[in-house]
Structure formats: structure tokens, C-alpha cells
Amino acid sequence: MHMIDDPLTEGSDVASPAVGRGQGFYPFAEQQELAVILSLNIVFTAGKHNGSYFVVQAKDAFFDEVRELAVIGGAGRFRGATGYGIMSIHL
Question: Assembly state and interactors (predicted)?
């Protein structure tokens, strides 16, 4: 299991201003492929969403080019949030 507390930035450039943190954990979850169960809070620390967060819970298969992640709740401006997010890797 791995714990995360990573910066969230406005863009993919490493010099982009920080707007929050990605905080959570992910245990490995598959025997047949490289995948984890991602439990993540997207916490905003700047801008109009400062102090708000939403919660993501999903299977994350590393070799899928695009992954769909379920949004299962939130607080502040995101209270009661539901839906999904799309994750892809920028190299």
C-alpha cells in the first residue's frame, strides 16, 4: 500500500502554480494486471475552491491509456458531488 500527498497544479508544467493536493492511498489490487484501488481526496488550497474537496474511488489499471475514476462525494463547493473524472499520463 502506498500513501500519497502530491501537489495539484493549474497545468502539466512543473512550474505551474499549485492549487491543491491529491491526498489518499492505493493498495495493489489485481493478480492478472498492474492495477490499484485508488482512494483519493482532491483538496483545493487556493483560488475560488480553497477549502473544498471531492473524493475519488476507482480501480486504476496502469497500462490503460485513459482511466475513468468515480467521484463519490465532496465538501465545501463540492458537497454531494457525483460523477466521474478522466485520468491520463502526460510524459
Answer: Homodimer.
C-beta of residue 14 within 8 angstroms of C-beta of residue 36: no
pTM of the model: 0.83
Classified as helix, coil or strand, 76 is helix
* Cα–Cα dist 62/82, whole Å: 23
What is the C-alpha to C-alpha distance for residues 42 and 36, in angstroms, rounded to an integer? 18
| Each residue's pLDDT expressed in tens, for the chain with a length of 91 residues | 899 999 999 988 889 999 999 999 999 887 888 899 999 999 999 999 999 999 999 998 888 889 999 999 999 999 999 999 998 876 6
Paired residues of 8 in beta bridges: 20
CB atoms within 10 A of CB 4: 14
